[in-house]
Amino acid sequence: MAVTQRREDHPQEYCQRISQVLGRIGDKWSLQVVDRLGDGPHRFSDLLRSIDAISQRMLTLTLRTLERDGLVRRTVTPSLPPRVDYELTELGQSLREPVRVLSEWVVRNMDKMDSARHGYDLATGIEAD
């Protein structure tokens, strides 16, 4: 029988785990890959062409990480050359809705954030970006 830890028992550990997951799925490329795979399976080369500025190596690493985390399934079809398709798992599909909501929030608020940054930079004389 598995023992489930409550977050109240280990709040720092719980926060660290949340940060790790958010860091992995919220990186520069993972959300774009999840978005592309949301419409169904894609071959590696299709993903590479559809995501601007991603290198072959970075796409490989991103797909491996997403597969390891259970968000993406890799299917190899024996042929010459072998066909490799990637698709979202059920867990990966469940990530689409929160990502959509977060994206909508960003669209609604990015001008406000840009304005706040500009005001901060003027007031402090420091530009963080």
Descriptive notes:
With 129 residues, the protein is mostly helical. The chain has a single domain, classed as Arc Repressor Mutant, subunit A (Orthogonal Bundle). 60% of the residues lie in helices and 11% in strands. The protein has a 3-stranded antiparallel beta sheet with strand order 1-3-2. Strand 2 and strand 3 (83-88) form a beta hairpin. The longest helix has 35 residues, at 90-124. The model has no long low-confidence stretch (mean pLDDT 91).
List descriptors.
mainly alpha, Arc Repressor Mutant, subunit A, three-stranded antiparallel beta sheet, 129 residues, 5 helices, 60% helix
Give the helices and strands, then pairings.
Layout: H1 11-25, H2 30-37, E1 42-43, H3 44-50, H4 56-68, E2 72-77, E3 83-88, H5 90-124
Antiparallel strand pairs: 1-3, 2-3
Q: Largest sheet, if any?
A: 3 strands, antiparallel
Terminal residue distance: 49 Å
As residue ranges, the low-confidence spans are: none
- CATH homology-level superfamily: Winged helix-like DNA-binding domain superfamily/Winged helix DNA-binding domain
Number of helices: 5
Indicate the mean pLDDT. 91
Per CATH, the class reads: Mainly Alpha
Strand content: 5-15%
Total strands: 3
Number of domains: 1
**Derived structural class:** mainly alpha
Helix share bin = 55-70%
Query: Which architecture per CATH?
Result: Orthogonal Bundle
Brief account:
The protein is mostly helical and 129 residues long.
